[in-house]
Amino acid sequence: MTFTDHSPLGTTTSALDEAVSVFVQLQPRLFGIAYRVLGSAVEAEDVVQEVWLRWQKTDRSAVVSPAAFLSSATTRLAINVAQSARVRRETYIGPWLPEPIDTSSDPEVGAQRAEALELALLLVLEKLSPAERAAYVLREAFDYSYPEIADMLQLSVVNVRKIVSRARKHLGAEQRESVDAEEHRRLLEAFVGAAQRGDIGSLEALLTPDAVSLSDGNGMRGAARIPVLGRARVANLATAYPRFWRGLDLRSVHANGRSGVMIYREGEPKTFLTVAASREGIYKVMWLFNPSKIAAFLDSRSRSM
Hints:
By secondary structure, this protein is an alpha+beta fold. It is built from 12 helices and 6 strands. The protein has helices at residues 13-38, 41-57, 66-89, 107-112, 119-125, 130-140, 146-153, 157-174, 181-197, 200-206, 231-239, 291-299; strands at residues 207-216, 228-229, 248-255, 258-265, 268-278, 281-288. A hairpin with a 2-residue loop joins β4 (258-265) and β5. α10 (200-206) crosses α11. The longest helix is centred in the first third of the chain and has 26 residues, at 13-38. It is globular and about 65 Å long.
């Protein structure tokens, strides 16, 4: 992020330097909050940029806790953006997937703050209201206390406890316990290898009976516009177009604390692929074709969370 001086006239250089120092220190946390609430790295960056502008214009001498002030501002802005984004996504053509972010530059990120970071969980979080999502993220991923979350959301502590409890129950009914990172990588590699060989039997052996394949292309040709359900259909889809796998350059990437594959054709990144897996096998295959989301992933390599 570029820090542009929008401070009121009369602000001293030392005061601005201090404001920048505080913000830089907290920026990874602010981005992490906004990203988990929004499922979009681009939108999260916009939120953090707006918080920076507000931070400059604030009477910082009256702020008791910069961390609380900035986290609160980020959360409220993210909720507002999420509410408008929900309306925009109603016109999205086909399945919508969160924008993945590259976590390879800082492996500790995925290990320390894996909560609400995996793509499959971010997708489930979309089923919650923006306020529910924010409360859950603040509690589970960043360990804020209920009174702190109540202050941020301008709700009572009792209401926040109810919101978080309701969110946990909703997610618990849909989210499965993930395999560890090494097993996830093994399953993804096995899936890609079997798909390249056209090995339907091996693919079906990797998938759960209720597996689903989601293709995010916003209407792009070649991207399935509806979820593909069931082990046999998901396996058939992965091998239905043998020409898809010819002449490709497959590169392993680290996305949202898990393994992924970026698929290049003629030197251009065209498709991002990852899976969600439990001890029973791969239950979700996620194909990302949307060029803007792929570009956002590649741009995220210099960002930490």
